[in-house]
Write a sequence for this structure.
């Protein structure tokens, strides 16, 4: 049961990284596994077995969410954008009590307020950059693009680890979001149909990105651990700002063109489901 719970947490973290405005790091904090994942990543050499017990189930879930559910998320966003956005807002809101509990008893000063407001403003204003019509890149299997995919992997990893910053939003601004999502879905189709030329193209592009993600996660996790060790209260104040700003960023990205009574009621139901799921998955 505990293993299934960890995999479910990983699935939500993986899916969150597909959705513009939603952060996998935010959900990790909301579900109470952020510190554990950071510790496991930075101590994998010294505490290899213990780290794997934490990382493997979450990693399996994240892969299922990121790759296996890319078709589902694409379909849901096409037909039920309001409901899926409210579901993730619920997942964030449901984890807020646990986050505030971590900040209880800490002395709060001007530096904490500045960190909170700066990070809150960052995550709220970030979607505005996405409104600029960045031209989508064309993914070609050449050395230059493979190098770019490695760098994109590092950037994506940074946004996965840092709560409140949406990796998919950054990719959208850079013009890589839709091309990479299409490449992943096409790779799954090629795998199912055993299209060898299509698989080769996907492997040449997605492998450098995967390597970049792994390298980026380890590097950023080290930085986050350092901040926790030396500036814990200020770091949590900043994380609090990032997370409280996340629902606003999600609402900004949500498509309300076809809002009606049905979508409103089901959206509120999805919000409630998200809150309950975050509370349940956040329990030890």
């Amino acid at each position: 049961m505990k293993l299934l719970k960890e995999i479910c947490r990983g699935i939500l973290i993986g899916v969150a990284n597909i959705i513009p405005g939603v952060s996998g790091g935010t959900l990790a904090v909301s579900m109470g596994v952020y510190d554990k994942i950071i510790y496991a990543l930075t101590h994998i050499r010294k505490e290899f077995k213990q780290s794997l017990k934490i990382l493997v189930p979450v990693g399996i879930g994240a892969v299922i969410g990121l790759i296996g559910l890319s078709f589902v998320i694409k379909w849901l966003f096409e037909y039920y954008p309001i409901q899926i956005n409210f579901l993730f807002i619920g997942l964030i809101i449901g984890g807020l009590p646990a986050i505030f509990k971590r900040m209880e008893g800490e002395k709060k000063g001007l530096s904490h307020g500045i960190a909170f407001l700066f990070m809150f403003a960052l995550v709220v204003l970030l979607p505005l950059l996405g409104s600029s019509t960045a031209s989508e890149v064309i993914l070609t299997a050449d050395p230059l693009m493979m190098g770019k995919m490695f760098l994109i992997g590092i950037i994506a990893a940074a946004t996965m680890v840092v709560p409140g910053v949406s990796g998919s939003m950054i990719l959208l601004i850079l013009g890589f979001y839709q091309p990479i999502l299409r490449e992943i879905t096409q790779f799954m189709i090629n795998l199912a149909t055993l299209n060898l030329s299509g698989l080769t193209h996907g492997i040449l592009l997605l492998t450098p990105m995967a390597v970049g993600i792994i390298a980026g996660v380890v590097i950023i996790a080290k930085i986050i651990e350092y901040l926790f060790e030396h500036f814990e209260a200020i770091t949590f104040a900043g994380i609090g700002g990032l997370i409280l700003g996340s629902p606003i960023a999600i609402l900004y990205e949500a498509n309300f063109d076809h809002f009606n009574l049905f979508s409103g009621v089901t959206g509120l139901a999805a919000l409630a489901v998200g809150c309950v799921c975050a509370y349940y998955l956040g329990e030890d």
